[in-house]
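Bug #2210: token dump truncated for Dipeptide/oligopeptide/nickel ABC transporter ATP-binding protein?
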Amino acid sequence: MTTLLSVRDLVVRYPGRNRRVPPRLAVDRVSFELAAGQTLALIGESGSGKSSTASAVLGLRRPESGEVWFDGHELTALDEPQLRPLRLRFQPVFQDPFGSLSPRRRIRDAVAEPLRVQGRWDPRSGPRRVAELLELVGLDATAHGDRLPHELSGGQCQRVGVARALASDPQLLVLDEPVAALDPSVRAGVLNLLTDLQERLGLAYLLICHDLALVRHMAHRVAVMQAGRIVETASAQALHGAAEHPHTRELLAAARRGA
Ligand SMILES: Nc1ncnc2c1ncn2[C@@H]1O[C@H](COP(=O)(O)OP(=O)(O)OP(=O)(O)O)[C@@H](O)[C@H]1O
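Reproduced locally. Full output below:
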């Protein structure tokens, strides 16, 4: 399996706001690898450093030290102009489907926006590409394209978020609690979509979550974070009830604490 993402000795520290709020070490020498087409779940209790790790991977926050390698490029050694073309190949999908869409922008324009921003909008092929992206996530350009976000369900909005992320043909999606904000009745549909897209497009997922059932459903490997460090890594098989597996108890305990 080809390694797509490699994180080595990552350290993220937030500066203190004043003398009474000291700097906070959020990620403490975290290392992991993610192969192309696979899912690694980062689980752990609230405040354990999952989102800070994801921000550093996405280049949204400069780590204090350590390296992030993506497909042979050391992202942490690049400046913003050098990073820009690479950013297209790893995209975030956020937790809050409504919050990540502009309330007054129609769905087809929301999906077209990343293409425009990336300078890849072609007036002739663009609308067809938007329709393809909507179809890829189970929406219909005619039925849904002209609607506003509040005219869609939470699950449909999250599908639009995924379509926007797919607009740049990424190899990696960073999924931060992708269904946590959704009604339980629509979660399975979005999860099945993500699993299906991974198979069809060969996507790798870095999945940040609290939900053990979700990890079981989606992940190939799982890393447990605690106080900024990875304290366990295991195959997700370890979560499938194999009580004799040495990691199972710790994994389950950590995931429950995070639940
Ligand atoms: N912008 C920030 N400024 C200062 N400290 C921060 C900031 N963001 C996070 N932290 C701190 O860094 C640590 C790790 O937070 P982080 O959000 O990465 O954890 P998490 O595991 O993703 O938590 P959750 O599951 O609640 O989202 C926590 O102690 C948190 O309080």
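Output looks complete on our side. The longest strand covers residues 3-14. Marking as cannot-reproduce; reopen if the truncation happens again.
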